[in-house]
Amino acid sequence: MKFGLQLHLERGADAVLREARQADDQGFDSVWLFDHLVGLGGTPSADGPLDPFTLMVAVGAVTTRVRMAWAMLNPTFRYPAVLAKMLTTLDQISHGRVICSLGAGWMQQECDAYGIPFISDHDARIDQEREVLRLFLELWAHPAPEKVTFHGTYVHTQDLAFNPAPYQKPRLPVWIGGESPATMALVKELADGWVALSSATADNIAQLRSAPDWPARPITIVKGQQVFVAESARQAREMAEAAFAQRPQRAGGAITLEDFLEREVVGTPDECQRRIGQIAATGVDYLRLTFLSEEHQHRFAHLLLPRF
Questions:
Q1: Gap between the Cα atoms of 300 and 289, Å rounded
Q2: Positive or negative: CA dihedral 236, 237, 239, 240
Q3: pLDDT of residue 249
Q4: φ/ψ (deg, to 5) at 195
Q5: Distances from the Cα of 234 to the Cαs of 29, 46, 83, 194, in angstroms?
Q6: Is 252 exposed, middle or buried, given 0-12, 13-18 or 19+ CB atoms closer than 10 A?
Q7: Average pLDDT for the chain
Q8: Rounded CA gap, 32 and 52, in Å?
Q9: How far is the C-alpha of 220 from the C-alpha of 191, rounded, in Å?
């Protein structure tokens, strides 16, 4: 089991860079940023959110070991071939620490606000994502002086001598986020990893992995998780209850406290280690963790991470 850390973009650049440096020192495998052009709640302000790709470049500059990913990169925001170049540039700068974590996008309001064309049909957006990914793979496999011409329904290049080549060989790992049937078909077809949403249950993962069309190649299965670990079970539960009380209504209105405690990892180090072992037994081998505060991050890093 490996662990990634979801950075708090809404806290601003200084806080994000501090979180990332700490994650680098503490032994987390990766750090993640959401990829949105607007804030997802509250009243808009002039302070943020910052552009997630630009901020991730700064993260790469202040860290030395931790890998970098997004939840998830939206291919609508940037021309596909340019995004491929941005990713390999960061991969070169960071000496091979980039995960190409790609989604299809879903928030039409931010595209409308920025004047970015939005494909309203979900499966058509997955088709666009597939073309973007196929172009990435073609460009990364055939860098300059070779030239790549690609003509799809949504994506086009003409005699492109692509550079720079990826630092990682043969290429960046590609992790796909989402869980619709169309997304899962894309995961099976082209992905090295799957970033699951609510469907990362033991039964669903077992059914997917036992299906005849599940690929034989290794596929990392990523699950979002919160961990509340403390020296005593009572203290851990109090931490979890405080986090539940702070959940925004849009995300937590339909879930009870007991459901929340059952779903997340809560307890002493021994209890949390057993719970994470149970999650690993389902086939999940990567947890993307979100912490309410830096104190919670420190507790996990001190009390639990060394056990893995």
A1: 10
A2: positive
A3: 61
A4: -95, 100
A5: 29, 41, 47, 34
A6: middle
A7: 95
A8: 10
A9: 9
Amino acid at 115: G
At residue 253, the pLDDT reads: 54
Distance of CA 57 to the CA centre of its chain: 16
Strand 156-160, strand 2-6: pairing: unpaired
The total number of residues written for the chain in this structure = 308
* Residues facing 157 on adjacent strands: 150
What is residue 231's three-state secondary structure?
coil
Are 198 and 179 spatial neighbours (Cβ–Cβ below 8 Å)? yes
Residue 137 CA to residue 117 CA, distance in Å, equals 24
Question: DSSP per residue over 119-180, as a string?
Answer: --SHHHHHHHHHHHHHHHHHHHHS-TTS-EEEE-SS-EEEEE---SPPSSSS---EEEE--S
Q: What is the pTM of this model?
A: 0.95
Distance CA 271, CA 240 (A): 14
Mean pLDDT of 263-276: 98
DSSP character at residue 45: B
Cα 7 to the center of its chain, rounded Å: 10
Determine the pLDDT at residue 21.
98
